[in-house]
Amino acid sequence: RKEVEQDPGPFNVPEGATVAFNCTYSNSASQSFFWYRQDCRKEPKLLMSVYSSGNEDGRFTAQLNRASQYISLLIRDSKLSDSATYLCVVNPGDNDMRFGAGTRLTVKP
Amino acid sequence: GAVVSQHPSRVICKSGTSVKIECRSLDFQATTMFWYRQFPKQSLMLMATSNEGSKATYEQGVEKDKFLINHASLTLSTLTVTSAHPEDSSFYICSVWAGGSGNTIYFGEGSWLTVV
Question: CA-CA to B20 of 20 to 30 Å: which in B1, B35, B87, B91?
Fold first, then answer.
């Protein structure tokens, strides 16, 4: 089993749609959780951290369920500019980061 | 501004030659840096974890004698692709661990390597 698993995608949605990505992690001792965004032929960039209480940043909402070892990212009112690959990232501790394979999102007019 | 600087952004080399890629932490001292490789339309793959002042830790399947990593200072790690082959052509990205209150990683801009 991979340490971090994501929905394989791709997700193709119309503008304005709501889309949700899921991610599970295997190490129950993992401490921190993040969503990164990677545009084509570019480096990944931090989108948002994920907190136990859940957190929201504009149209983006992240949730963490430690009991189920599950992380989610919800994008509301999706824009064309949201098209990218979304990476689930987990810190299992000790200056380490583990990435999911990424979920590709395409938002169409 | 950029937190991590990677150089060169693009490089073309001949088969059999070696190429060095630099990763610099601009804003803080980095005891840990990571090197990744990403083939077109594939996911990011961790190659190795670079630790300042000690040997790098390589992921399974990554040849340490082919991909030489040096992390001699708290702001610089280098990846040298030795005896490059066309199949080594890829996007190489470094990242820096920002521990403490930041507790996340920042990526360099990446380096496109083409071996001809």
Answer: B1
Q: Nearest residue on chain B to A6, judged by CA atoms? A: B43
Q: From the CA of B62, how many Å to the nearest CA of chain A?
A: 17
pLDDT mean across residues, chain B: 90
Backbone angles phi and psi of B33, in degrees to 5: -130, 155
CB contact under 8 A, B104 and A102: no
Chain A to chain B, count of Cβ pairs less than 8 Å apart?
A: 42
Q: What is the pLDDT of residues B88-115, one digit of tens each?
A: 999 999 998 876 655 678 899 999 999 9
Burial readout B12-21 (b: 16 or more C-beta within 10 A, e: otherwise): ebeeeeebeb
Please state whether beta strands B90-98 and B67-73 pair in parallel, antiparallel, or not at all (unpaired).
unpaired
- Distance CA(A107)–CA(A57), nearest Å, equals 19
Which tokens sit at B11?
A: 């490089």
